[in-house]
Amino acid sequence: MRPFLFLGTRAEDDVAQQEYDGVLAGCGLRPEELVRVRLEAGPLGEVDLADWSGIVLGGGPFNMSDPEDRKSPAQRRAEAELRVLARRVVAADFPFLGACYGIGVLGTLPGGVVDRTFGEPIGALPVRLTDEGRADPLFGVMPAEFDAYLGHKEAVTRLPDGAVLLASTDTCPVHAFRLGRNVYATQFHPELDPVAICDRIDAYSAHGYYEPHEQEQLKDAARAALVTEPVRLLARFVELHAR
User: Fold this and answer.
1) Catalytic residues
2) Which of 31, 43, 93, 231 has the most CB atoms in a 10 Å sphere around its CB?
3) What domain range includes position 42?
């Protein structure tokens, strides 16, 4: 089997490793089958799509809607590299699954708009599939409604050209979409469990996702949530695309 490529953007070593481990476990792969590149640490380099079964892009503190003068050189470089890669995978209809930051990357393709209109606080919320989501080869393994961990400042307010809406919440109309047959993005995090989301709440306490006095309350609510279904997307992505 050709390996999968995992792209991360988290500068914090502990949560970066935890994210990779969560994706690895959810996909049911061995480390040599899910090769990681940390985009915040260095250039992506040349990606020959023929070398890979598929690509998974994780989340992180980067936002496409951040003011340009507040973006670090690493963020600007990663955005430029991912923009080129996104166009390539869409043109080739190459298997791609982007979570959180991934929906920002794909959402800014032609016709799309990503802004701060539909941000959601850190926690768990019910996600509902559209009719297209229920019929989709990837999302069709999910219940029509399921709880998922999320937390984001930006979201898609207008889908890019040709995108198919797959899932929504009450507070964010676009929680997942598909381009072509094989290119996907989710706003929620399929890899998270209660320990991992609590660790992220701690790790990003100074990033403006919540007020300092809310930290322990958010962690208590995250631990109390029953989030079991989203991780199934990772295994299904591998099942559909391993080659």
Assistant:
1) 100, 189, 191
2) 231
3) 4-241
